[in-house]
Amino acid sequence: MPQRDDPIRVGVVSQYFRKHSVWDAILKGWFQALDRSRFSLHAFYTGGAEDDETRYARAHAASFSAGPPELHRWVETILARGLDVLIYPEVGMDPLTLQLASLRLARVQVASWGHPETTGLPTIDYYLSAECLEPAEAQDHYTERLVTLPGIGCYYVRPQVVARVPDFHALGIPADAALYVCPGVPFKYTPAYDAILTAIAQRVGACCFIFFSHTLQHLTEQLQNRIARTFEAAGLPFAEHVTFIPWQDSAGFHGILESAHVFLDTIGFSGFNTAMQAVQCDIPIVTREGAFMRGRLASGILKRMGLTELVTDTNDAYVDLAVRLGTDVDYRNDVRRRIVESRDVLFEDAEPIRALEDFLARAVAEG
Questions:
Q1: Which residue from 276, 237, 284, 279 is spatially nearest to 260, judged by alpha carbons?
Q2: For the chain, what are the domain ranges?
């Protein structure tokens, strides 16, 4: 491969150069760990609000352009950088990013899993994913050339867990029940899996499923009403088994994770950052692995840790595991211990970064 003296110019277009799941899972590691002698990073921030993470990105970028200007202004700004590679971490999350990704603004254009779907765009050449997040036949799910980075595919900065002890009584959570944390945003819960909750409740008895009210209240109300009908149909008192509590800040959420017994991953559209937070708070995770990457985020984390027994492949197995973890204290404590012993492998792993660097250099040379 021919060598070049000047760094490869890599642009990143994102709405989330701020505290957000896309920043935490993908972007921050790039801006912290990529070799600046080989790569210069140019940030194009299509969002609005700024915080400490925005300032971090600005300080670690070769250039930082903020919006939101009109589409044609963004095109001019991006083209002016003379990029070798342009990366879109979350195509599909907002219209502007989708419009930009539909254009050819760099010789090599790449998407990643901030939005865990293929873009379907002929202008996107590659899709960055991870070995632990994809099935064997994964290339069939993408119009882009799939690139699977080692492990969970990212340099994930270990979160600093500050936990506030929850007041369960004030939150309407029974302190003497098996507590299941249901952390997903409402749109991640599909009706096909509602009956899993009643199946767990019928076998455990004294248990409580803790949901979090979303800022879009109408979505929370739709989910709450739907689950209530499922419990009513099963002859179970909804109010005794399900509690929707206010959306929590970081300390409040970590406090719930540390104090509850089991973390129930959303089926079909798994959670990545929430699972990483659960691992850091030592709470056992129950997940069902899906056919597509979007349903394999938590299972990829658990597999990377060697905790494959927490990864299920059917509804019945999901229920069985949730029941065991909720009722078998010795088993639950043993799983907690093994989480603590194995979780270091997830954080600040340089191997995916080095593989990303090699991919970028190769793609530019071949492009």
A1: 284
A2: 8-157+348-366, 168-346
Q: How many CB atoms neighbour CB 102 within 10 A?
A: 14
322, 286 contact by CB (below 8 A): yes
Query: Has this prediction a pTM greater than 0.90?
Result: yes
Is the domain defined by 8-157+348-366 classed in CATH 3.40.50.11380? yes
SS3 string, 262-281, reads EEECCCCCCCCHHHHHHHHC
* Tens-digit pLDDT profile for residues 272-288: 999 999 999 999 999 99
Rounded Cα gap, residues 211 and 183, in angstroms: 6
In three-state secondary structure terms, 180 is: strand
Domains 8-157+348-366 and 168-346 fall in the same CATH topology: yes
Average pLDDT over every residue of 211-240: 96
Q: Which long-range contacts (CB under 8 A, 24 or more apart) does 299-304 make?
A: 299/270, 300/130, 300/132, 300/133, 300/152, 301/132, 301/152, 301/272, 301/275, 301/276, 301/346, 302/275, 303/132, 304/132, 304/151, 304/152, 304/345, 304/346
* Domain 168-346 in this protein, CATH class: alpha beta
234 vs 185, 191, 195, 229, 323, CA distance in Å? 24, 15, 9, 9, 17
